[in-house]
Amino acid sequence: MSRIAATFADLKANNKTALVTFITAGDPAPELTVPLMHALVAGGADILELGVPFSDPMAEGPVIQRACERALAFGVGIRDVFGYVAEFRKTNQTTPVVLMGYANPIERIGAAAFIAKSQEAGADGAIVVDYPPEECEEFAAAMRAAELDLIFLLAPTSTEERIQQVAKVGGGFSYYVSLKGVTGAGNIDTVQVAERLKAIRQHVQLPIGVGFGIRDGATARAVAEVADAVVIGSRIVQEIEKHGKDGAVAAVQAFVSDIRSALDA
Fold first, then answer.
1. Residue closest to 154 by CA, chosen among 203, 118, 115, 114
2. 225 noted as active-site residue
3. Is 135 part of the annotated catalytic residue set?
């Protein structure tokens, strides 16, 4: 059983919702990436999404775009991200780590190298925003063969055909984007989310995480009523941006701890 599957199974047995958290590798400084990963876990995160910095993160709002710019200014790239995961694994062998980003860095080093280096570093899967499931069955199969989960996004506009394709090739969990737009924008309509998840579950047997627009404990708790996981990214990156190098680690742990408390209330 993969780390992701084991995490969801354990949480389900304890009637808890998974908290999935995102940061951009290298932001606000390369040396803080691994401490921030540990702070997320200490605050109560169950699964970590580690963003691979990219110059044109099309699904991201301005908050994560700026995080990518800060990381790229330090020269942080995909090979550094593998190093951060390997360093994290020296003291944490249980928390799943999912690499999140875009096709370009993977294409640059090659799919086979990406899979091999992800496995070697101790990553558990990937979310590649611009890899449509219809066009990467071979890549998904290679990921599965390496015991890595390829996680796909579903949106309010996803057709039944797309949902079925994600059910066919996806692994780990499915990530439902609750808003039409970019990360960090708008407010979630939890009634609408519940309706869409009900339709998605007719085809997708994997756990479903909901992200985009979750900014506080109350929203997280409302989403947790209908989802298997709550995904928070932009709001955490805002804490990093606000507090900078000196205060980011403590601020992130405190914020995540508040979310965890709300989920467990």
1. 203
2. no
3. no
